[in-house]
Amino acid sequence: MKRLLLQDERAGSLPDRIYAGVVEAILRGDFAPSGKLPTEADLAVTFGVSRPTVREALSRLRADRIIDSRRGAGSYVIRQPGAPAASATPIKNLADIERYYEFRSCVESGAAAAAAEYGDAGDLAAVRAAFDDWVAAMEDGGAGVEEDLRFHLAIARASHNPFFVTTLEASIAPIRHYLELARYTTDKKSPARIGANRAEHQAIMEAIARRSPADAADAVRTHILNAKRRIFESTPMP
What is the 3-state secondary structure (H, E, C) of the chain? Predict the structure, then answer.
């Protein structure tokens, strides 16, 4: 069986590393087309750990709605809403991650600029609410991945351009979800990192509120550049 773990083996607890390894395997499409994971026994052999350790990692994956387990049938990947079953472009190497962030920067900076130009009071309220939810998740010690996705989707919707919304939902959100989860499991966020991330989100929101398309686009590009840097710092891939 192919080795799943790509993370630095010194980083995180054993369940953390198994969680991250499975997340990265999902991202690469290793379990397509059936989406079925290897058995607990096979995963234990692959990672060189005990079955209870594997069981803990799988429990966390179920809690985060990444997989579902069926009695007598094993565990299966649950595809994210909006993720096309066959057309999502897989990430196979570092160059693909670079291309992904270039693509994301183009799309999301355009969406933010349009949101600053066309968004109304209700749209801004939705962006602020999503931001507040993300801050609350961070303060509670959570990953904040779902809340962060809602923040960026709220910005796309504020653009009043359905193409930004569908592109974000179908091409960006699923990949970003897995990348962020993989990073979080092996890189517990420091207060300094949380503060920097919060400031980046707030700069985007404030530029939209000022109705400054150029500033909103620049704030998004800065945020995505930093997000790419954080991914490369904490989730090296061969």
Answer: CCCCCCCCCCCCCHHHHHHHHHHHHHHHCCCCCCCECCCHHHHHHHHCCCHHHHHHHHHHHHHCCCEEEECCCEEEECCCCCCCCCCCCCCCCHHHHHHHHHHHHHHHHHHHHHHHHHCCHHHHHHHHHHHHHHHHHHHCCCCCHHHHHHHHHHHHHHCCCHHHHHHHHHHHHHHHHHHHHHHHHHCCCCHHHHHHHHHHHHHHHHHHHCCCHHHHHHHHHHHHHHHHHHHHHHCCCC
